[in-house]
Specification:
Layout (H helix, E strand, L loop, with lengths): L17 H5 L6 H9 L4 H10 L3 H7 L4 H10 L4 H20 L4 H9 L17 H15 L5
Organism: Rheinheimera aquimaris
Pfam families: Xre-like-HTH, Xre_MbcA_ParS_C
InterPro entries: Antitox_Xre, Xre-like_HTH, Xre/MbcA/ParS-like_toxin-bd
Length: about 150
């Protein structure tokens, strides 16, 4: 009896994750280097597109004044501090999007509306400091694991 054996070739996961869509390394030396050098301006455009926030709203969330944003567009690069704020937003966006099973409309709604677990503040209103950002990420972690207290 002869058995027919086919070679198994796994199909690669072709759908890029959110970090890949944004063009940002998820972690590690490449991320650190990009933050130190300053993100390319194109990341702002990608964040706006992926998050479904208009550029004015995203600039406000990331504390970028209109004049500063115009200068960065011309220069093509953000400062280290501005890049860190963009990364903070991206981190919360990715975590919230995972919480809502990649439903970006639900993610946007959650980010823009008051959340009881955050003292009735919208997550997007709490990205000014790393402590507030951590509070958002902690809440997302608790929600993912069913811990509501």
């Amino acid at each position: 009896m002869t058995a027919l054996v086919r070679e198994f070739t796994p199909t690669p996961d072709t759908a890029p994750n959110l970090w890949q869509q944004l063009g940002i390394a998820e972690r590690g030396p490449k991320l650190y280097q990009a933050l130190h050098e300053g993100f390319n301006y194109s990341i702002f455009d990608k964040l706006s597109l992926v998050s479904m926030l208009d550029k004015k709203q995203l600039a406000q969330v990331c504390q970028l004044a209109p004049a500063t944003l115009a200068r960065r567009a011309k220069l093509g690069k953000f400062t280290q501090e501005e890049s860190d704020r963009l990364h903070r937003f991206a981190t919360v966006l990715v975590a919230a999007n995972t919480l809502f099973d990649t439903d970006m409309a639900a993610t946007k709604r959650w980010l823009t509306e008051p959340v009881y677990g955050l003292g009735d503040k919208a997550p997007l209103d709490m990205l000014a400091t790393s402590a507030e950002t951590q509070a958002i990420l902690d809440l997302i972690g608790r929600l993912e694991h069913g811990v509501f207290a």
